[in-house]
Design brief:
The chain is mainly α and 266 residues long. Helices cover 55% and strands 4% of the residues. Among the domains are: 1-24 and 51-73, no CATH class; 132-245, Serine Threonine Protein Phosphatase 5, Tetratricopeptide repeat (Alpha Horseshoe). Strands 1-2 form a two-stranded antiparallel sheet. The protein starts with a strand and ends in a 5-residue tail after the last helix.
C-alpha cells in the first residue's frame, strides 16, 4: 500500500508523490532485526529529483500567492453600484442640456420689428344660441332665409345642427304646413325658441304641441320641456331673490346723488 508524503514549505504542508515513493521504496525494518547492517537503497533510475520537484512546488506557491493578492486588490476596490451609474448618467444629461441651452441662446435670432396690425374684419353672423339679453326682433331676417329656398326644411335642419337656432327657426317657418308635419314643425320651432332663451314664446309653442294627441311621442316630449322651462324660471326667480337679499339697501344720500347724476329726459 502506497503512502502519501508531506513536505513543509514556508509553513505549508504539501503532498509530494515523489517523497511518498521514496518512503515506499525504503525497506520495512523489523524491531527484532539488527538495523546496523541495513543499507539504504538508492532511488530508482528515471525518477524526478527532489530539487526539481521542490522548485516546481515553489513556483506553484508563488502563482497561488500572486492570484490571492490580485483577488484581494480587486475586492478592496469600490464597485460601480446602480446609484453611481445613475449619478453619472444624470451628470452627463445635465451637461448635455446645458450645452443645448447655451447653443439655443447663442443662436437666437434678433426679434423682428412689429408689423402693423391689420384691421379686424367685420364679424359675420353669429352662430349659436342667442342670450336672453340679445334677443332678435321679428323683423330681423337671416341672410340665408330668402323666398328662393328650394327645401327650407333641409336648410332648417342644417342650421339647427350648426347651432344657428335663429336661422333654423326662420327656415322652419318657411316650410309649407300640412296635416302630417304640423305638430313636428311646431315642436321644432318651440325648440329653436328655447335654445334662444325666449322662454315665454317657447312655452306657448310647447303647450300647443302638448294639447295635440295626433303624435303621443311629441306630446310627451313637449310636456317634459314645459316642466324644464317651469323649473328653470322658478330657479332663476329664486336666484334673483337671493341676489336682492345680499345687496345692501342704498342709503337716501346715495339715492339722491344717483338721481342728481342721472340726466333728465326731456
Amino acid at each position: 500500500m502506497k503512502s502519501t508524503g508531506w513536505i513543509s514549505v514556508a509553513g505549508w504542508l504539501i503532498a509530494s508523490p515523489v517523497f511518498a515513493q521514496s518512503l515506499d521504496s525504503l525497506p520495512v525494518l523489523d524491531a527484532s532485526e539488527d538495523t546496523s547492517a541495513v543499507s539504504v537503497a538508492p532511488p530508482p533510475s528515471g525518477s524526478v529529483s527532489f530539487d526539481s520537484e521542490l522548485e516546481r512546488l515553489r513556483q506553484d506557491i508563488a502563482a497561488i500567492k500572486s492570484l490571492r493578492e490580485q483577488v484581494a486588490s480587486e475586492a478592496n476596490q469600490p464597485l460601480n453600484s446602480d446609484v453611481a451609474v445613475a449619478e453619472e448618467q444624470r451628470r452627463e444629461l445635465l451637461d448635455l442640456l446645458t450645452k443645448l441651452a447655451t447653443t439655443k441662446v447663442l443662436a437666437k435670432p434678433t426679434p423682428e420689428p412689429p408689423q402693423p396690425q391689420k384691421a379686424a374684419p367685420a364679424p359675420g353672423p353669429r352662430i349659436g344660441a342667442a342670450k336672453a339679453d340679445t334677443k332678435l326682433e321679428k323683423t330681423t331676417t337671416h341672410p340665408l332665409i330668402t323666398d328662393k329656398i328650394v327645401d327650407p326644411f333641409a336648410l332648417g335642419r342644417a342650421l339647427f345642427r350648426s347651432e344657428d337656432y335663429v336661422g333654423a327657426e326662420q327656415a322652419f317657418r318657411k316650410v309649407k304646413v300640412t296635416d302630417d308635419n304640423r305638430v313636428m314643425l311646431q315642436y321644432l320651432i318651440a325648440t329653436c325658441l328655447r335654445k334662444q332663451s325666449r322662454w315665454e314664446q317657447a312655452a306657448k309653442a310647447y303647450r300647443i304641441v302638448s294639447e295635440n294627441n295626433d303624435d303621443p311621442a311629441l306630446r310627451d316630449l313637449a310636456l317634459w320641456q314645459l316642466e324644464n322651462i317651469r323649473w328653470y324660471q322658478q330657479t332663476e326667480a329664486q336666484f334673483e331673490q337671493l341676489r336682492e337679499r345680499r345687496e345692501p339697501p342704498a342709503s337716501p344720500k346715495a339715492a339722491a346723488q344717483a338721481k342728481r347724476l342721472t340726466p333728465s329726459s326731456r
